[in-house]
Amino acid sequence: MSRRTVYASALLALSLATFAAALPAQESLGDAARRIRSKKGDVPTSPANRMAATPQPASPAGVNADLNAAITVSTERDEAAYSTRVRTQLEQENFKVLDDVAAAERAGRTRFPGGGWKLHTFYAAVEWPKGRAPVTEADWADTLDRLKRWVAQQPDSITAAVALARAYLNYAWQARGDGNAASVTAEGKRLFDERIKLAETELNQSFQLPAKCPEWYYVMLQVGRVKGWEVEDLAALFQRAIAYDPEYFYYYQEFALSLTPKWRGKEGDAEKFAEEQASHVGGKSGDMLYWLIAQSILGNRDLGNAPPQFSWSRALLGYQVLTERFGASPLRQNQLAQMAARFGDYMVTDETLTLIGDKWDQGTWGTREYFEKVRAWARDSAVPFRKIIEAYKAVNANIATPEGQKYDAVIAREFSARYAHAVKECATGGGPAPTLLVLQMDKSGSVHQVMVVPENANDACVRPKLEKAAFSPPPKPEYWVRVALSAKP
Q: Terminus-to-terminus CA distance in the chain, angstroms?
């Protein structure tokens, strides 16, 4: 049977896609159906809603059931639950439902909280055998057979073809393994090349179909990368991809991966690409794209832990834009914490991990052990700094009052007369010298806490002297003051 053959459900898929294309951005098929019914007293007006509400004499008996199933899947807002629903439809071989859902997601350009495209998640749900590793050959045979039956039964389906191509790509990596080139056996290399060729062939054949899909370009970019295409050829395909849909950010992430030293580029190429593309897009959208590219590279554990050359400040700004537009998600929070840790920003890491709680993402961290290690580092590093911030706030509040200003002058005189010389003597020791002291007084004027700024200053000499110091009683107990020091002895 030819791929161009008209199949029984073409009218249904077309009506769904047409209906979805007219929706506002981010409005799913189910949202629109509910909105229309609420406004029209449940009287359907669009072709898709008339199908859903009234039996169609010329339609197959199962059309309404298929449409209801498609609406149930497409209205799911939780990404994990959505993946499960999509996978269930594949297991039940409800191929028309799968085509209808993908057509609606494609036309509606729908996204999950966190900005991930529902269409991309759709494909991820069907590209791999169900269940956990290790995946057996029998598991692969079952999944590939289902996808092939989908292609055969729906020969005009771009969705079925792309899904099968993605599966072939994963099946190829199953044969090769994730190790370096030296670890790949001759048989593994043969099977890898054979299966990559199957993916490429499926994509080339499906490119002639009337319907197009942004995921097609994403998968073909992967095929080109692993087959060893020249950077110029990958760049040409990338330009065609962004011409088709410049907002499908997975293209940018995939091409950036091709520019890393592990593949076709050299140090700094991926970072330069991110900067160029973000600047070309411009504005907040450009900042958001910068985050998406940077995170995909720095979050890729296969690339190792090379020192990041991306701009952390721009990436962080891009994350903020992303969450403003699409909302936060546990996955994005995990990615932010991991990125902040890579840049040594323990404050952002600690704050974000506090929000995450126990909802760690294995795809981001790899192991629970590593997640807990980063959590402990961030907490131990951030707590002292956070204490200094709170102490600063208390100092500023105190000196904003007349009595606080008077006491601040008293402390300056008493410190200069009693302790300044001793602090200067301490500055001759190793390590950076303290430039500021933040002291908390008890009600009698004795020093209760001592904080030294900068945090890494050598306080082994200063601290014992000040912990025994005594000043005039403060205006109230637990009173914070600060004393500026000269950096020179």
A: 89
Determine the Cα–Cα distance for residues 148 and 161; give it in Å rounded to an integer. Answer: 9
Q: Which residues of 375-409 are buried (b: 16+ CB within 10 A; e: fewer)?
A: beebeebbeeeeebeebbebbeebbeeeebeebee
Tokens of 111: 């996204």
Q: Tens digits of per-residue pLDDT, 209-245?
A: 999 999 999 999 999 999 999 999 999 999 999 999 9
Measured between alpha carbons, how far is 256 from 178 in angstroms, rounded to an integer?
A: 20
Q: Mean pLDDT, to the nearest integer, of 392-420?
A: 89
Percentage of the chain with pLDDT > 70? 83
DSSP class per residue in 353-399:
HHHHTT---HHHHSSHHHHHHHHHHHHHHHHHHHHHHHHHHHHHHHH
* DSSP state letter for 446: B
Structure confidence by residue, pLDDT tens digits, 73-131: 999 999 999 999 999 999 999 999 999 999 999 999 999 999 999 999 999 999 999 86
Rounded Cα distance between 103 and 198, Å, is 24
Task: Note whether 257 and 300 are within 8 A (CB).
Answer: yes
Which two structure tokens, joined as six digits, stand for 448?
A: 């209760």
Residue with tokens 């190790």: 179
* Residues facing 117 on adjacent strands: 111
In a 3-state reduction of DSSP, which class is residue 343?
coil
**CB burial of residue 426 (10 Å; 0-12, 13-18, 19+):** buried
Contact 317, 287 (CB under 8 A): yes
Asked if residue 338 lies in contact with residue 299, where contact means CB atoms within 8 angstroms, the answer is yes
Gap between the Cα atoms of 406 and 224, Å rounded: 72
Residue 464 pLDDT level (bands cut at 50, 70, 90): confident
